Structures are given as C-alpha cells and as structure tokens.
Amino acid sequence: MASSTTVKIAEFRRLLSHAHSVLVLTGAGISAESGIPTFRGAGGLWRQFKATDLATQTAFARSPSLVWEFYHYRRELVRTKQPNKAHIALAKAEKRFEKEGKRFNVITQNVDGLHRRAGTKNLIEMHGNLFMVQCTLCQFIEENDSSPICESLRNRGSPDVNPPEIDEKDLPRCTKCKSLVRPHIVWFGEHIWDDVLEKIQKEIQLCDLFIVIGTSSVVYPAAGYASILAERNIPIAEVNIETTPSTSIATYHFHGPAAQIIPQLLSVNLNNE
Ligand code: APR
Ligand code: ZN
C-alpha cells in the first residue's frame, strides 16, 4: 500500500478516536464484494431493463407481474449472499462505540438487508428493504421473507427469459385485506418516508465524523448529505473504487474496495474472533 495511504489512514483513525457521533452512509458499492451487482455498474441490467425503469410506480401499475418478478429475482439472489468484511467491520465498530458511550449510526440506501444480517443495530434503511411489503389498498406494512414470496413466482424472475404475465390475483397479497402488495421500497419519483427523514435529520445534526461508502452520490437526498456536513466543517471520508461528486468535498478519499479498506479504517481485526 502506498505510504500516503498509510498516512491518511492513520490521520483518519486519529479523528475517529476523538469522534462522538459517527455517521456512515452506504450505497450499493458496499455490497458489491458480496456479489450483489451495483445499480449503475456492469450487471445493473435485468432482462432488457435498467433497475431505474422497473423501480417505479408507473412500471408497477403497467405490470405488477413484471415488477414482482424483478423483486423476486433480487430477493432470491440476496438470500444466497453473505455480508462481507465491510458490513461486519461496521457492526463491530458500532459495538465498540456503544461500549464507550459514543454514537455510531449507519444510513444505507441499500435494500439488501446485509447490514442487519451483519449485526448493525443503529441502522436506517432509507430506501426500504427487499423483505418488507406494503399493501396497495390498506397500506399495511409487514415483513415477508418467504421463499418464494408466492407460489406463482416459484422458478420465475430469470433475467434471461420473458415468460407470460402472472395474473394479479396470484401475486403477493396482504395478510390483512388480501389486496395486492408491493415491495416496501422507495421507488424513483417517490418521497422518502417522513419518519425516516426525521431520523436522518437528527443524525446529521449530531454527526461529527461522516463516512460515505460505495455510493455514486447522484441520487438525492443521500447525495446531498456530504455537502451539508462539509458546510459545517465536519470531516468526511469517502471509500470508493471511483471518484464521485462527493470526492472533491471529502476530507479523505480512500480509493479501493470497501471490504479491504473499511476494516483498516475502523481498526477492526476480523481474524481473531
Ligand atoms: N467498494 C467501494 N465502492 C464500490 C465498490 C467496492 N467494492 N464497487 C463499486 N463501488 C462504487 C461504485 O464506484 C459506485 O460509485 O459503488 C457505487 C455504486 O453506485 P450505484 O450503483 O449508483 O449505487 P448507489 O449509489 O447505492 O445508488 C443509489 O440509486 O438506483 C438507486 O435506489 C437505488 O439506492 C440506490 C440509489
Ligand atoms: Zn391490505
């Protein structure tokens, strides 16, 4: 590793040891090494569609069958994947901070649930979670991690074929009123839920060190958090394999894969437990 990187890591660790309220923002890049494709990178297509064409209310209204096949595919894919060293290091750092009476919170744009599975407790899943559904009629929100989520989706969702539509009555239904449910995910063109935004506002207020990992920093509001914090002179560390719109305002840019860099930054030894 280049010595300038070693120096930057040492500097960052010094800041971390003095921080009282660390806030971490993660994006698809943190799960890339778990084998989950990012949105804007290679592998972001399903059938001929971009994720951004399917994760919308318009797409769901046009074809709930197609959109459910896409989400069923992603649910089943994520099930076969494991949290990587970056997720695990964050969960361990949270425990250490809590022991010291300090705050450590993770905001994720990811819907894959890997932070939860790694043991992160102070977690805001700002775009929702693949394993939660919401009723399109009574709005009831519930967890549903059945595999498959309904019989008609068994063996469906393949990225290579375009099978016939599934009848709406055979798609996932609400356990309360039996109406069609949708993934409890914030789609393009939708607003992030108010309670979630309030929690994020609070963390941004309290934050004295910000770490942004594996996000292209183009989707708002998350893309704007770094500049809000930079205006308050809060130190920012970015970890990414590319530069992003946040790079120029970050105090430190750590160039490389999250699973390799995050354990070093957080001084988490993953071998001795
Ligand atoms: N380590 C660190 N960063 C990585 C790695 C890795 N191993 N692999 C990829 N990256 C970086 C890429 O360089 C890119 O900047 O992760 C980022 C992934 O960007 P996107 O695919 O745009 O994902 P994200 O920023 O999370 O997207 C935000 O947009 O599609 C919507 O709602 C969806 O939550 C998503 C939001
Ligand atoms: Zn209902």
From TrEMBL:
Key words of the record: Metal-binding, Mitochondrion, NAD, Transferase, Zinc
Annotated cofactor note: Binds 1 zinc ion per subunit.
Sites where the protein binds NAD(+): 27-46, 109-112, 214-216, 240-242, 258
PROSITE patterns attached to this UniProt entry: SIRTUIN
Residues that hold Zn(2+) according to the record: C135, C138, C174, C177
Primary subcellular site in the record, as a coarse category: mitochondrion
Protein known as: NAD-dependent protein deacylase
Taxonomic source organism: Rotaria socialis
Lineage summary: Eukaryota, Metazoa, Spiralia, Gnathifera, Rotifera
